[in-house]
C-alpha cells in the first residue's frame, strides 16, 4: 500500500486528539470528529451552532463496520449498501449503545454512511473510530462544496481543513430509513429515488413533512442563503419584480443578465447539482435584492435539486 499522505496524517493526529477537522466527501464537506467520544461530538454542535436535537451522520470506511454500530440491519439496507456504497446514501438503522446519545440526539437510530472520496476513505480506514460529521456550515446556511466555502465561515474555528478539491456530487446524501422493513426516504439527495427503487422496489417518500420532522433536515427553510428566493418561470418573475435588482438562477439558459448563475451550461442535472451551492453562495456576494429561480427538470437528481431550491425559497421556520 502507498504511504499515507502528510495531509491525512495531520487530520488523523488531530482527530485522535479529540479535535475537529473538515473533511471532503463526494456530496459536501463535513465537520468531523470522533463519533465515539462525546466531548468531540459536543465540539461539533458548538462550532456549527447546531441545536442538540438535530442528530449527526456517522461515517464509516466500508459496510463491514456497520455491524459494530447498528443493532439491526434490514435486508433492504444491506442491499442498498451493496449497490450504492461508497456513495451518497445514508442508512438510518437501530443503533448499538457504543454510539453516544449525543450523536443521535437521543433517537434509537443512527445515520450511517460510507462516503465516496479517496482521501476521506483513507482517513477513515486509518482511524480506530468512525467520524460524526454534519455538513461543515453554520446551522441553517447552505452546505459547503469547496474548501474555500468551509474556510470562509469556519476557518477561524477549526484547526484543519483536509483539501479534497470541489465535491463531485454537490448535494447532500439521500437519507433512507426502514419502517417495518419498508424503505422510507427522509431526505432526497445525491442518490436518486429512481436508483433506489431499481434495487429495493417502491419506497415511501416522507421528505416534505415539515411539522414535527423525524429528520430535522426536513425543516423547510434549512438551506437559506442571504437573499430572498422566489421560484417560477423566469420571464414571469421578471415581470413581477420590475423594480428590484434581480439575480437569476437558471438551469441552462443564459439571459445575459448582470447578475446570474447558469447551473449547467451543458444541460445536465449532475453539473447543476455540482454548482448549486456555489451559486447560492455567489449570489450572497452580489448587490441584488432578490434571487429569481426556475426549477430544473424534476427527475432523478433534479428532484433533490428542486427540493433544495424550494427550501432556499422557504421563509417559514417551523
Ligand atoms: O452528504 C451528507 O449527508 C453530508 C456529508 C458530510 O456526509 N452530511 C450532512 O449532514 O448533510 P447534516 O448533519 O448536515 O445532515 C444530516 C441530516 C440532518 O438533517 C439530521 O437531522 C439527519 O440527517 N439525521 C441524522 N441522523 C439521524 C437519525 N438518527 N434520525 C433521523 N435523522 C437523522
Ligand atoms: Mg447540513
TrEMBL record:
Where does the UniProt entry say this protein principally localizes? cytoplasm
Keyword Calcium appears in the UniProt entry = no
YrdC-like domain residues: 5-191
Can you tell me which residues bind ATP?
A: 50, 59, 109, 135, 143, 187, 223
| One GO molecular-function entry | tRNA binding
* Annotated positions binding L-threonine: 27, 113, 133, 173
Show the catalytic activity: L-threonine + hydrogencarbonate + ATP = L-threonylcarbamoyladenylate + diphosphate + H2O
Q: Which InterPro entries match?
A: DHBP_synth_RibB-like_a/b_dom, Sua5-like_dom, Sua5/YwlC_C, Sua5_C, T(6)A37_SUA5, TC-AMP_synthase_SUA5
What's the Enzyme Commission number for this chain? 2.7.7.87
List locations, semicolon-separated.
Answer: Cytoplasm
Question: Has keyword Cytoplasm?
Answer: yes
Task: Kindly list the GO CC terms recorded for this protein.
Answer: cytoplasm
The UniProt keywords, alphabetically, are: ATP-binding, Cytoplasm, Nucleotide-binding, Nucleotidyltransferase, Transferase, tRNA processing
One Pfam family from the UniProt entry? Sua5_C
The biological processes this protein is annotated with in GO are: regulation of translational fidelity; tRNA processing
Q: What does this protein do?
A: Required for the formation of a threonylcarbamoyl group on adenosine at position 37 (t(6)A37) in tRNAs that read codons beginning with adenine.
Any idea what this protein is called?
Answer: Threonylcarbamoyl-AMP synthase
Amino acid at each position: 500500500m502507498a504511504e499515507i499522505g502528510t495531509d491525512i496524517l495531520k487530520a488523523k493526529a488531530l482527530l485522535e486528539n479529540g479535535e475537529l477537522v473538515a473533511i471532503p466527501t463526494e456530496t459536501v464537506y463535513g465537520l468531523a470528529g470522533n463519533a465515539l467520544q462525546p466531548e468531540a461530538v459536543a465540539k461539533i454542535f458548538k462550532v456549527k451552532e447546531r441545536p442538540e436535537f438535530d442528530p449527526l451522520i456517522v461515517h464509516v470506511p466500508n459496510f463491514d463496520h456497520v455491524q459494530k454500530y447498528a443493532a439491526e440491519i434490514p435486508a433492504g439496507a444491506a442491499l442498498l449498501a451493496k449497490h450504492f456504497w461508497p456513495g451518497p446514501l445514508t442508512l438510518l438503522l437501530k443503533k448499538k449503545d457504543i454510539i453516544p446519545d449525543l450523536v443521535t440526539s437521543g433517537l434509537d437510530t443512527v445515520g450511517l454512511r460510507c462516503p465516496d472520496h479517496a482521501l476521506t476513505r483513507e482517513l477513515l480506514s486509518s482511524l480506530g473510530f468512525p467520524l460524526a460529521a454534519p455538513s461543515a456550515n453554520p446551522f441553517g446556511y447552505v452546505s459547503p462544496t469547496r474548501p474555500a466555502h468551509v474556510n470562509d465561515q469556519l476557518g477561524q474555528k477549526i484547526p484543519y481543513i483536509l483539501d479534497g478539491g470541489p465535491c463531485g456530487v454537490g448535494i447532500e446524501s439521500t437519507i433512507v430509513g426502514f419502517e417495518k422493513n419498508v424503505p422510507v426516504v427522509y431526505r432526497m439527495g445525491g442518490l436518486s429515488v429512481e436508483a433506489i427503487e431499481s434495487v429495493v422496489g417502491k419506497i415511501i417518500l416522507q421528505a416534505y413533512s415539515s411539522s414535527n420532522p423525524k429528520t430535522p433536515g426536513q425543516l423547510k427553510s434549512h438551506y437559506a442563503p442571504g437573499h430572498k428566493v422566489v421560484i417560477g418561470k423566469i420571464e414571469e418573475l421578471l415581470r413581477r419584480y420590475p423594480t428590484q435588482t434581480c439575480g437569476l438562477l437558471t438551469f441552462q439558459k443564459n439571459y445575459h443578465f448582470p447578475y446570474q448563475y447558469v447551473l449547467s451550461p451543458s444541460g445536465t442535472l449532475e453539473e447543476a447539482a455540482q454548482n448549486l451551492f456555489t451559486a447560492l453562495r455567489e449570489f450572497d456576494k452580489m448587490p441584488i435584492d432578490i434571487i429569481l429561480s426556475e426549477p430544473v427538470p424534476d427527475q432523478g437528481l433534479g428532484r433533490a435539486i428542486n427540493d433544495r431550491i424550494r427550501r432556499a425559497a422557504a421563509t417559514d421556520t417551523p
